[in-house]
Amino acid sequence: MRVIGRAARIMIDYLKSYAREGRYKADGDSGEILEVAFRDEAFLAWVNAYADLIEDFREKLRGVLMDLASPRQGKLMSIWQKELFSATSADKLAMLESRLQDGLALPFEESVDTALRYLPKRTKIDVDIYLTIDPFNTGMMRPGRVFLSILLAEPTPKLAKEFAHEFHHIGAHYWLDKNKQLEALRSSHEHARILAEVIAYLVTEGIANWYTSPSAIQVVKGAEKHNTRVQQLERNMLGLLKSLEHLLWWICERHEPVEEVEEAFQALRIDTSGQGLPAGHFLSGRMIGAMETSDAVSREGIIDLVKHPFEFFDLYNRAVEEGIRLDNSLVSVVRSKVADWTARG
What we know:
Oligomer: single chain
Helix content: 55-70%
Number of helices: 18
């Protein structure tokens, strides 16, 4: 396990030069640093982690960095512009310098042990940790990599323990990446690929949120904004289940245009409210919680979902009462489509 500070270092240096020069200057320090940034392996590892979340993200980020003072259209890049421009203040830059040094010294081993408690035996977690200046995601995972934003979170030993969530994702993908049926589904066609991503998302976020970071999906004393978001989602639990059913029906029916299906999935897994809790994270975590509290589903069966992800909907319906079950006919259709699409290739 390595803790890599290069992406954060480059961003801090860029923000300092931008503040010093008053704007982006192609022939100044800011221009030179930005060119280095978009050739740097660690910086691009972080940027490329957004490839499947924000279309043309590399170009959009470069545009924001070249003109931090100008507001952006759209919620997502507006967040990036506002927060990164704010980070050019002297106080914020001094804070980031301090946090970078603290982050490089964090002990992450205990959080790896926590993640392993909720993964099958013989799970391997091999990961590099990238420190970033990310105004949108506190933590993010990609195969073999975990990203931690020192802009959004103070790197303390307590935070290192809480990073079990991201390490659990690494361990979950150790098994999911070995799943031949999931691989076949991803390579079948676009709707099949989205179905594979939805199922993997529900399994990974559900288990990680319920077991390793339960405070993320529950009311927490003193966290007013977070609690408002959680309570809003709790009141809309049935609506969230209906949204998931709608997405699954669209996938099974091969709804066109497929971009609308992608947008429906994005609405579940990305939170544009600024509270940092996507509806899908909350929903999947509570679905896993329903399994955990049911006598009809074993803890081992839940943990083994990373090896048998297509059992997610069946285990959930077995765990809950009729009023909050997923449509059984839909679950049957999903099962049939998985078999059909993976057989055809």
